[in-house]
Amino acid sequence: MIDAQRRGLLAAFGASALLTLFPGVTRAATGHDTRFLLVLLRGGLDGLHLLPAFGDPAYAALRGDGAIADPIRIDSQFGLHPAMQQAAAMYRAKQLLPIVAIAPPYRQRSHFDAQDCLENGTATPNGARDGWLGRCVRALPGDSALAVAAVMPLALRGSDRASNWSPPLSKKVDPLLLQQLQPLYAADPRLNELFERSTQTAAMRREGKGAFALPEAMRVAAQRMAVADGPRIGFVEDSGWDTHRNQAPLLQRKLAQLDEGLANARDGFGAAWSRTVVVVVTEFGRTAAINGTGGTDHGTGAVALLCGGAVGGGRIGGDWPGLAPAQLNEGRDVRATSDLRALFKRVLIEHVGLADAAVESKVFPGSRAVAPMQGLRLT
Q1: pLDDT tens-digit profile of 313-339?
Q2: Is there a contact between 362 and 138 (Cβ–Cβ < 8 Å)?
Q3: Degrees (nearest 5) of the Cα angle 195, 198, 200?
Q4: pTM for the complete prediction?
Q5: Please, what is the Cα angle at 372 between 369 and 373, to 5 degrees?
Q6: Can you tell me whether residue 324 is helix, strand or coil?
Q7: What is the DSSP letter of 342?
């Protein structure tokens, strides 16, 4: 009789309620000791450079000299950029799942509107003053979140259990000022490139031997999230992915950093890696064709990466629209066939353990028409 009463209590209140009512109960005991780290690559990563669609008949003609000559082939149609060696090993270990042709519901080409839409979790830029990750933390009683960022990102605003951390900047540079200045430079590709280069150089000087770059940020986030009862939700950001010209050498370096960051996250999580999902996203993709300066311009459909021990990877996710002229968005971009909110919903429901009703009413209100993405196979 007592056992039946206990089972009834568990069913009625759920894991989150037990953690609130009985603080001595551990997450492991409730079955919800999972971790979720979101990595936002600001600037618009060229998905066709990260994940070349070499098997698509139109790929070589669109890319010309910018086509990846020797990708790491992971299936009959797609490969990974050669810099993604660790990611390829994760793919073979069924811990990496690329999602093709995905974007926020905003389908125009403004960095800041697209990032705002991605982070606020609504269908429009400025659709909410807080972020969907912050609302997620509010729906998880007793859990906390960490952003490795100089300024609290919009995605995590709205929860008093979210904190941010970054190495101290020079007293002469206010990180909030840098964030406010960035939109002024972004409208001009040349000025934006100079601004990004200057901020990265300044960071390298502060560190003495190199910037606090993406690999280190992902390592720190993982280590802090891996401790017992550490933050279940994490956020890392990286800028400099806007590649209007000469993108090959720039992305060679940036993708190598991303690859190192994924390996650092795996190592930093340690034993918690088996209970972890890392999602790498960007605000939009790039043009399908290379432009006249060896780069790509703002596009639509992008690539997301899911990795972690809790990911059923080793395959390609999403709905590939093709690269033929009639298949492109407005004749120039990879067409987006999936809404990022569908991906986030599935991660929150299937991995984090939020109830469907909480995801629909609290985290992504007004998005019932966007069903959680099927077939991800998360644990």
Answers
A1: 999 999 999 999 999 999 999 999 999
A2: yes
A3: 110
A4: 0.84
A5: 120
A6: coil
A7: H
Q: Which residue, chain included where needed, has tokens 């830029």?
A: 125
- For every residue of 220-289, DSSP letters joined together read HHHHHHHSTT--SEEEEEE-----SB-HHHHHHHHHHHHHHHHHHHHHHHGGGGGGEEEEEEES--BBSS
Among residues 100, 95, 377, the alpha carbon closest in space to that of 263 is found at: 95
User: If you average pLDDT over residues 81-105, what whole number do you get?
Assistant: 98
**What is the Cβ-side half-sphere exposure of residue 359, based on CA atoms within 13 angstroms?**
21
- The secondary structure element, H or E, covering residue 344 is helix 340-346
pLDDT (average), residues 349-364: 97
Please tell me the number of Cα atoms within 13 Å of 241 on its side-chain side: 32
Look at residue 14 and tell me whether its pLDDT is greater than 50. Answer: no
- Bridge-partner residues for 305, per DSSP? 98, 280
Class of domain 37-166+212-363: alpha beta
Tens of pLDDT along 206-263? 444 444 699 999 999 999 999 998 999 999 999 999 999 999 999 999 999 999 999 9
Give me the residue spans of the domains in the chain: 37-166+212-363, 168-209
Write the single-letter amino acid at 270.
G
Total residues belonging to the chain: 379
Strands 96-103 and 338-339, how do they pair? Answer: parallel
The overall longest dimension of the chain from CA atoms, in Å, is: 76
Q: Would you say 241 and 292 are in contact if contact means Cβ atoms under 8 Å apart?
A: no
pLDDT in tens, 174-201: 666 666 677 777 777 667 766 766 666 5
